[in-house]
Here is the input.
Amino acid sequence: MLTLAVPSKGRLMERTAQWLAARGLRLRRTGTARDYAVALDGIEGVEARLMSAGEIAGALAAGEVNLGVTGRDLIREGAVRAEEVAALGFGHADLVIAVPDFWSDCRTLHDLDAVAAQFREGHGRRLRIATKYHRLTRAALREAGVADYVLVDSQGATEGTVAGGGAEAIADITSTGETLRANHLRVLEDGMVLRSEACLWRSQVDGGDEGPFRDLAARAAG
Here is the structure.
């Protein structure tokens, strides 16, 4: 038996159900909208479970579910031991590093390094970058040689932290860039950290039965 976790609400749940249906699998509720009970018809040996996207990443990491649909950003940020079975073609979002639009001379990560050094010299503290993605952002900045910064955790809308005085720059997920532009932020030319989308993942802690997995994997590839 395999346990497949799918997003529990919103557009991600709808698109996942459509993706499954296109492969001859029907996700249907077996209880009320509040109890999250579902079944997956059209395949033997696979039971479905509704969870939030963040919970799915954690459940895959712990081996509590064998398969799950969640974003590449959550898997990579959590360093989850999971195999990407298939990219589903929806839920696209990019993790990017963005700076205030009026920083006209800051176009690249190399420029950001220079700005950070000048900021520390002028203000006596490190430039703050707000993000929920500490691991991925730190790795990207380290690879680019950016120093003299500090990551600050964003608990709310990351795009608003610069205008609110909580940070000087941000690293955040964006789909269209409209929210960034509305907050007078601009993505650095080489500020792409990760291209993310919804994917089907298999836990490397407990991948479950091979028979049902091969069936599901074949449908995903078809």
User: Anything to note?
Assistant: Residues 2-91+197-221 form a domain with the D-Maltodextrin-Binding Protein; domain 2 fold (CATH 3.40.190.10).
